[in-house]
Amino acid sequence: MTTPPHGRSSDDDDQDNNNPSQQPYYPPSDHPEDRSDFGYQGAEQAAYGAYGDPSENSGRHAAGDYSQSEVNPGVAKGTGKINILAAVSWGFSTTFRNAKLWIVLGLIGLLAIIGSAAISFGVLAATTDFDAANEQELQSFGGANAASSMVGLAIALISLVLTPYVYRLALFQVDDPATGWGHLWKDTPLLRTLGVLIVAAIVNGIVYLLTMVPLNQALEDLVDPDLSVSASAVLFTVLGFVVMLIWSVLSMFMAWAAASGQFGFGESLKTGWNIGKGNFGKLLLFVIAFQLIAPLAILLTFLLGIIVIFPAYTLMLAHMFRQAVGTAPH
User: Fold this and answer.
1) Residue 175, domain member (yes or no)
2) Looking at the whole model, is its pTM more than 0.85?
3) How many independent structural domains does the chain possess?
4) H-type helices in 41-134, by residue range?
5) How far apart are CA 290 and CA 284, in angstroms?
6) Beta carbons of 241 and 208 less than 8 angstroms apart
7) Is the CB of residue 211 less than 8 Å from the CB of residue 240?
8) For residues 174 and 314, is the Cβ–Cβ distance under 8 A?
9) Cβ atoms of residues 90 and 315 within 8 Å
10) Do 155 and 306 meet the contact criterion of CB atoms below 8 Å apart?
11) pLDDT of 94-128, one tens digit each?
């Protein structure tokens, strides 16, 4: 074996063979570019060729994985706060701006309401003798009313199933101004949204029953001249309506959170609750104002107002939800 010159080692000879031009040797550092995984997926830097990959972004959106400023560039992180006036303005303007979608949907909704009413009345008319005078015929009238109620129940179930798709379509409209009929039925977490809707409806139904029992008793007291209206019945009725109103605000965005695809079942309930609680005063005034103004506008327009009001209201809520989670357009 050859003895290396003084001050050198065998490793130095190997480096000379690998570096015949005798370039200066620099020891390894902790810079990112010196790491062996630099330029590959999983490193701190994105892999080469991964920038602006449309398929990756579209895949994330299809899965409902929205991040701040990803849907709408320049959007600030959501604070949970809602601007009611901005949502109302955007809802009405978008309804007319994308009339081929939302006005048509409003027209379909109006026709569905008229059709369901006609079917219910038709069933009632076909099975009832309106000149009934004896008890047996009155019982027959009750059976016809039950049949009409079954028709109404079927229509309500159909509406329940369609609601998640309408919510998702409205959220698409907030995210993408070019939303059209092709977005309908797309990327909708149906079962999750239905589950949240059913939970909210069950709570609302319990409150409704607690309200109607004393209300019916109060009405019976009014019919009987020998009895005065029960103060407790009136008190429970008023309290029930107040509780229903409060719950309608707190549960307003639960189903929207589920329909967005961003949250799981339990998280949707929590997110919707937090949005309602954090904006309770504003949302309460909004609900009261809408309940007063919308029916009046619909009556004054001979039901034609439904074509605009219902789509606009849906878009308002979608915009409010996106405001709260930080992905609503400016």
Assistant:
1) yes
2) no
3) 1
4) 54-62, 84-97, 99-126
5) 10
6) no
7) yes
8) no
9) yes
10) no
11) 999 999 999 999 999 999 999 888 887 887 777 66
Q: Which residues, in sequence order, are CB contacts of 300 under 8 Å at separation 6+?
A: none
Cα-Cα-Cα-Cα torsion 57, 61, 62, 65, nearest 10 degrees, comes to: 120
Q: Is residue 132 part of a domain?
A: yes
Q: Which helix (H) or strand (E) holds 223?
A: helix 190-223
Phi-psi map region of 66: left, alpha, beta (phi>0 left; psi -120 to 50 alpha)? beta
Contact yes or no for 312/286 (Cβ under 8 A): no
What Å distances lie between residue 263 and 118, 258, 259, 268, CA to CA? 39, 6, 9, 5
The total number of residues written for the chain in this structure: 330
Structure token pair of residue 156: 């309500």
Closest CA to 86 of 255, 282, 273: 282
For residue 208, is it within any domain? yes
Domain that holds residue 316: 71-325
Residue 225, class by beta-carbon neighbours within 10 Å (0-12 exposed, 13-18 middle, 19+ buried)? exposed
Residue 98 lies in a domain: yes
pLDDT band at 57 (very low <50, low <70, confident <90, very high): very low
